[in-house]
Amino acid sequence: MSENSDEATAPGADWDALAASFDDEPDHGLRDADVRRAWAARLASWLPPRPGDVLDLGCGTGSLSLLAAEQGHRVTGVDLSPAMVELARTKLAGRDAVFLNGDAAAPPVGEQRFDAVLVRHVLWTLPGPGRVLRHWRQLLRPRGRLVLVEGVWGSVTPVGIPADRLTALLAPLAGQARVERLSGDASLWGREVTDERYAVVATYG
Fold first, then answer.
1. Which of 45, 115, 119, 139 could be stapled to 52 by a disulfide with Cβ–Cβ 3.0 to 4.6 Å?
2. Interior CA angle at 33 toward 41 and 118, to 5°?
């Protein structure tokens, strides 16, 4: 991802058209071994230590879903783009994973509940983020956790959601939230970055 990448135009982007090239970004496709290892290590520290059910919202082509599955979790991925969903299904063929076409703000999972809800670079694109977070919280089992990877990108017309705003939105949900700054870890992005990138892990119960 770069300051002029698709994150900057995400709300109006044609994700089906972008699906074929989506994995070209180092932090999307995780094709570089060092980038992949960096994300795998972070994900292992964010997700529950024991294998559980993980809901990956806005899963894209399934790169983080694959890492979670490799760590023993059962994954349900949701993405609005049918093309992304098909690529994710191919990427995780043979794994304990299911991919659904749907809205990350209201994922089509029925009464199913999860040990973790994982969301990367999605919340800032959704209207009513406070309402969305409340709904995601309801999808968690007792002692579940929200894992939210977000940021603010661009220097001329910045887009995204600052960490302090996200933690403020989480405060009414009565969990314990910690912020992990990611901008300084070039291995996650395949290059040095100067914008705000972070993860918030909120645990409940």
1. 115
2. 40
Mean per-residue pLDDT pooled into runs of 10, the chain (205 residues) = 42 73 76 92 97 97 96 97 95 97 97 98 95 98 97 90 97 96 95 95 95
CA–CA gap between residue 60 and residue 36 (Å, rounded): 16
Per the CB < 8 A criterion, the answer to whether 43 and 71 are in contact is: yes
Q: Say if residues 152 and 122 touch (Cβ distance below 8 Å).
A: no
Question: Strand ranges (DSSP E) for 24-139?
Answer: 53-57, 74-79, 97-101, 114-120
* Cα 90 to Cα 66: distance, rounded to the nearest angstrom: 11
Contact status, residue 201 vs residue 147, Cβ threshold 8 Å: yes
**Could you tell me the pTM of the whole model?**
0.91
